[in-house]
Amino acid sequence: MIDPRATVDPSAEIDAGVSIGPYSVIGPNVTIAAGTWIGPHVVINGPCTIGKDNRIYQFSSLGESPQDKKYSGGRSELVIGERNIIREFCTINRGTEANHGQTVVGDDNWIMSYVHIAHDCRVGNHTVFANGSSLAGHVTVEDYVAFGGFTLVHQFSRVGAYAFTGMGTALNRDLPPYLIATGNPAKTRGLNKVGLKRHGFSECLIKKLQRAYIIAIKSRTEKDANRKQLESLCEEHESVKRFVEFINSSKRGITL
Fold first, then answer.
1. Residue 223: what pLDDT?
2. Among 153, 161, 219, 226, which residue's Cβ finds the most Cβ atoms within 10 Å?
């Protein structure tokens, strides 16, 4: 399963069910679980842990040291879950001493070519990164987010669940769950209705989320009255509560 032209450090822990293509380099302190396929010319440095059934295509670089001038060589790692697809020329760096020293990618993510995920990012499950999307350091991406091609996300920003960005979007603030954002700088364009329907959200719930979004925009000028309306909607459904809590917990400010 390991091509004789690949280079694998003796200390790497490679399951017998892992396939490694020619000219790939697997460094020390790397652990790869069963069923993962690694194409040719892939470089993986440790500490790095990769779960089951991932597909990692040629010329990707995983687990390299962080691109952070403050990094002083302390222990840090990259943790990748299961069933992810990582296409050609992707770069995913390890964490720094901050934020537990980890960069984390969850399960069932589709990461297309030329994507960059920087140090200390935390990516959830079932996300889509179209070609050329990039996360700066310390970005948090929740589940079921979809990034359009060449989306850029500023460091320390958060992107809420089921959000969607258009091609070339530049996010420099937090993007709440369920919304669409486009432009540079990014602005929201309403609810991600198509995505929500595809993921089984009912028409009734979508209408409640749409109402919460409209109130959230108005709350910038009519805070007290709209806060009460949002509180009432939160009591009706957990998804609306999640939307409001995301906004209230923002430290960078909200994209609206």
1. 55
2. 153
